[in-house]
Amino acid sequence: MNNRPFLGSVVIYLLATLVVVSAIYPLGYAISTSLKTGTALFDTHFFPMAPTFTNYVALFEGHQPFGRHLMNSIMVSTLVVVLSLAMSVTAAYALGRIAFKGKGLLLMTILGVSMFPQVAVLSGMFELIRAIGLYNKAIGLLVPYTVFTLPFTVWVLTTFMRQLPKELEEAAIMDGCSPMRIIWSVFMPLLWPALVSTGLLAFIGAWNEFLFALTFSIDDNQRTVPVGISLLAGATAYEVPWGSIMAASVLVTLPLVGLVLAFQKKIVSGLTAGAVKG
């Protein structure tokens, strides 16, 4: 029997409703505005009176190659996730399962890399990108993105790796499995919730990154979506195309929403694993 007071239940539901509305309203407003044109953009009605997809069509027909920006972001973000997870899993196995001197110092060093703000390493990273011939190329963003993503993914996966049963590893060693075979055949099936949640956060970080993408690419065809949207805001000197900006924002947000909805069960499992020790 639930002994929670009626007033307490009402307060909880009101707070939950407030949180949901606060989270959904910005996206709803962006979708509504993206379906308006002309003077309708300044209409006070939340729902558009005459919805139109003109702003979405204009994105791909304008002087800015928004479609190319979108493809660049998809390519870079996906490759960052693949590279980061591939390197992080092997690093997490060494840091989480193998005892060696200096392991604690190495972990703190990895964590220290993530504490540097992007601006602090911007000039050095710029020189590195130019030296290896990746300046003004979308693929060149893999270097700074992976550098800043690895510390987070290594730390998270190391925590999960430490919690896996030692008996599984010992049984695999008795069967003659090599360390790589243990990682890919024994531990990987158990790490999927952690990999999904960590990979999604890494994807979002690479998808939304702006400073490096703006600095390392000057060719319109090599830019990513965040930079493309910023260029839309300055496309005209006398009028800001709010409808196109909102349409671009919706298109950029939908893939992230889709990924979260598709993997929500594994994300929750990954974020809550290890919270209770059995």
Write the layout of secondary structure elements.
Elements: H1 6-34, H2 54-61, H3 66-97, H4 103-115, H5 118-131, H6 142-162, H7 166-174, H8 179-208, H9 211-215, H10 225-233, H11 242-262, H12 264-272
> What gross morphology would you assign?
globular
Order of helices and strands: HHHHHHHHHHHH
Query: With helices defined by DSSP (H or I, 4 residues minimum), what is the helix count?
Result: 12
Write the CATH architecture name of the largest domain.
Orthogonal Bundle
Q: Strand share of the residues?
A: under 5%
Radius of gyration from the alpha-carbon trace, in angstroms: 23 Å
The number of distinct structural domains comes to 2
According to CATH, what is the class of the largest domain?
Mainly Alpha
Averaged pLDDT = 84
Separation of the first and last Cα atoms: 28 Å
What is the structural class?
mainly alpha
The total of beta strands comes to 0
CATH homologous superfamily title of the largest domain: MetI-like
Helix content: over 70%
Low-pLDDT stretches are: 274-278
Report on the biggest sheet.
none
